[in-house]
Amino acid sequence: MFKLFLLSFLFLISLEASTKSSELLKRAQSYMKSNSTSDTFRAYDDYKTLYLRSMVDNDSSLKFEALKGIVKSGERLSIDVSKYSQELKTLSQKSSYNKPEPKEMKKSKHIEDVHVDPLHRLKSVEWREDTLLLEFNKELTSSQIEHFTLHDTIKGRYRYVFDIKTAMLTDSQNIKSNDIDRIKIAQFDPQTLRLVIDHNAKIEVAHSIDSKTLEVKLKTKTSKVVPALESVVPIKRDRGKVIVIDPGHGGKDPGAVGYRKYREKIVVFDVAKELEKILESRGYKVYMTRTADKFVKLSDRTKFANKKGANIFVSIHANAIDGKHANKVHGVECYFLSPSRSERAKSVAAQENSADLSDMNIYGKDSYLNFLNHHNTVASNKLAIDLQRGMLGALAKRYSGVKDGGVREGPFWVLVGAQMPSVLVEVGFITHPTEARRLVDKNYLKTMALGLADGIERYFANN
Ligand SMILES: [Zn+2]
User: Per the database record, which ranges form the MurNAc-LAA domain (predicted)?
Assistant: First the structure.
């Protein structure tokens, strides 16, 4: 738990997150119209934020736009964006959002020549039993609709795509469904509204037009199965990897003290031990920054990881919140270190750090930004996503009400100085009665450690 700092930081995050991706994209695009270097930098920054969001939301079309922007602005700024342009190339080749391969798609008709009325727009979306109803403000014709299906054989996913030649939807939205993994509707380009139905199995999809309404009937063959994360990506194990696990706090520093006086330092040590056991059994080299209940300075933790030549650094913590919110706030979160843009974030980091003056002398108040390099920030973000998914996937299969607190970024001192991708995991709120009871339960911790281990393997398999 990072005390006051965390609370203020969460507030900060919520402010940042309030800028919608579509608005951010528009802003970046308008910066790009300017010729000034500082505006191009702003655009570059926005595109990077969008890129990270696209990974968190698993949104390929946003990723595509973000990568295009990063490459374009980066090149203008003479920043090395070769990694991004490589990814963009790969994405364009296999992208199901951009140009589906002809053999994969069944086109109903060619609609390139359809004239788009800019005032023709979507009014509402609703369910009538298993049929999705998209109501427009004007009559719809079949020539306005293109439908194709994509099957990703590697990931075993099916995508049913409807491109509707209408305009004026300002923001993308996800449509809730009990049976289908993901349904999303978004303005794909100025002339096309795109509806994507994404599922881990085949669906019977039938569509028809009734005057102003497009009716899409969706029938799944089976009831919803929680997709096993392990099966999504075939795992290639690289047993040469070195992992440093950092159980937070210890010794004179108990960390957060929560429900029934449970102590963070004990909980996180138990998770770390479980994780160590699993990773070792899978053939990895694992080191712990502390192997007993003793105090270790923050800066010594990453120094240790650097010395061991770790491929990744995972710091484990438990969260806490005071008083009247204790019964309400719970959930698991993953943080990665990033050079938070605002002055305020920097001052929050300095405040957090004041608890350990010796660390401050080593790094200096502002110089922590120098430790960050772009490559590690992106890699850490990816690692955080894999860890978060791993934990949630494993826990949600066995426990109810597990809350996804999300992947967040921030200037965490314990991660500063790490020369490898590093993530801080908050395994839950030790102040929340249910979550705290689970956090001292061996089976729960084992499940969580298993999820973290799977997340780590996914990360290594993909990077
Ligand atoms: Zn902590």
Answer: 302-457
Q: What is the band of 311 on the pLDDT scale with cuts at 50, 70, 90?
A: very high
Instruction: For residue 407, give the amino acid letter.
Output: V
What is the pLDDT confidence band of residue 454, given thresholds at 50, 70 and 90? very high
| Statement to judge: residues 191 and 239 lie in one domain | no
Residues 6+ apart with CB under 8 A from 328: 432
Distance (Å) from CA 429 to ligand 1 centroid: 11
The Å distance, Cα 256 to ligand 1 centre, comes to 7
Residues 259, 374, single domain; the answer is: yes
Give the Å distance between the CA of 297 and the centre of ligand 1: 13
336 in any annotated domain: yes
Residues with CB under 5 A from ligand 1 (ion): 1, 248, 255, 317
In the chain, the number of structural domains is 3
Q: What is the Cα–Cα distance from 460 to 453, expressed in whole angstroms?
A: 11
Please check whether residue 284 is in contact with residue 277, taking contact to mean a CB–CB distance below 8 angstroms. no
- Does residue 200 lie within any of the structural domains? yes
Q: Which domain-ending residue is among 173, 191, 220?
A: 220
- Of 76-85, 150-159, 221-230, which range is least confident? 221-230
Range of 13-17, 145-149, 359-363, 440-444 with top mean pLDDT: 440-444
User: Does residue 40 sit in the same domain as residue 140?
Assistant: no
- The rounded Å distance from CA 72 to ligand 1 centre is 40
- Rounded to whole angstroms, the Cα distance separating 456 from 72 reads 32
Same domain, 304 and 334: yes
The answer to the question of residue 2 being in a domain is no
Q: Domain range spanning residue 35?
A: 20-94
Residues 127, 43: one domain? Answer: no
Q: 425 and 352, same structural domain?
A: yes
CATH number at residue 117: 2.60.40.3500
Instruction: Flag whether 1 is in a domain.
Output: no
72-81, 132-141, 408-417: the lowest-pLDDT one = 408-417
Q: How long is the chain?
A: 463
Q: What tokens were used for 303? A: 């120094």
Q: Which of 100, 32, 19 is nearest to 71 (CA)?
A: 32
DSSP state of 237: P
Question: Cα(371) to centroid of ligand 1, in Å?
Answer: 22
Give the tens place of pLDDT for each residue, 225-267. 333 333 333 344 456 899 999 999 999 989 888 889 899 999 9
CA distance 32 to 72: 9
Average pLDDT over all residues of the chain: 78
Examine the domain organization and report whether 90 and 121 are in the same domain. Answer: no
